[in-house]
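Predict the structure of Type I restriction enzyme, S subunit.
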Amino acid sequence: MGGKYQAYPGYKDSGVELLNGIPSHWNVMQLKHSVDGCINGIWGSEPEGDENDTIVLRVADFDRSKLSLKNEGYTYRKIEPKEKINRALKRGDLLLEKSGGGEKTLVGQVVLFDRDFEAVTSNFVAKMSPKDGFDSRYLNYVFSRFYDDRINYCSIKQNTGIQNLDSELYLSEKIGFPTNAEQLKIANFLDHETARIDTLIEKQQQLIKLLKEKRQAVISHAVTKGLNPNAKMRDSGVEWLGEVPEHWIVAGFKKYLNKIVDYRGKTPEKHDSGIFLVTARNIKNGKINYEASQEFISERDYENVMSRGKPKFGDVLFTTEAPLGEVASVDREDIALAQRIIKFDGKLDILNNSYLKYLIMSDQFQQSLMMFASGSTALGIKAERLVYLRSLIPPLNEQLDIVEHIERMTRKVDNLIVKAAGAIEIIHERRTALISAAVTGKIDVRDWQPPNG
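Done. Here is the predicted structure for Type I restriction enzyme, S subunit.
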């Protein structure tokens, strides 16, 4: 890493393939020599509201981007005193994800326990306590470098869909270590620089949040108030709609729809290839996301699975549960539709499908969905309850103008969101590269001082 950072005056061969040269005064050793064991956690039993109720930290509590813990949402479990003896956490301990991961996420993330409350780790997380002479913040950055460079990959074993990290094998990996005093300087440097970088990332994330709110506001206003600010308004007679243009029709949701196709029924047999099966997970923000979930059915099963009605280009797909209320336009016809999806099609020359999609996406319609949804675990709505919902129907030419307006405006917003997301990716890559350069000795920050003010 060039630029404003200098290299060390001298280097030596580390003897480690992925490390190459290290500063001449650093010592190569296995990771296991920097921590006092790797102690597995415990899940305990249901809390009873007494002194044994203890916070049990899970992988879900990891703030991966900041290598720390989230600030809320902790789980309490009953942990007996004898079970806490070796598992109780203290400030400066490191938490290692030993089981979990996902299709695109490796197991093996490490975060720093920088809190003072009583806690233990769950059975999927292990505790590592730094030995004397090793700074916990520095070690946290070292493990971050190992994770980001996927060095932990060789220590992962796959079992029934869950990744398990062989901690003994992982901790046998080698890296160069400076003295404790130098570790502290590097950790102080990285704390300052990563905090500054995180602030830039948070600003971009806030921008994306505001842009998404603007996008939603454009849709909600256009489909409930129209494009003419001078249009005469009237009371819709529907509480969640409020005033609407006086020439618009307020009607039952099903009145101007052709046949409603509900794909409830037996789950079809899945295959590794064949006809793409669109599930509720694929439907998001008005589009079918073919990357979100990839399931297939055989061609021989297609006619039976789609016997209630095949999708046509432009049809509107609606999720009835998990999640509720997402919509998408059918953009290809060589697909099958899974359970928890209903297909809508507006009546010709009365209700445009794209307008219908945006109407469903509006805040007002989504609010009405919540009013008629049911379910204790996941909210959902049955097809027969759609009769309680309402539609707003402008003249067809006005619907087309509204669709054109929404798509033009949201396209601009989406482009800005893509740019902001790209900026976050670049900034995060710089953060990762800076950590790696500092903990592998590619840059010398021994003389670094925090800026005044």
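Residues 253 and 386 are 7 Å apart (CA to CA).
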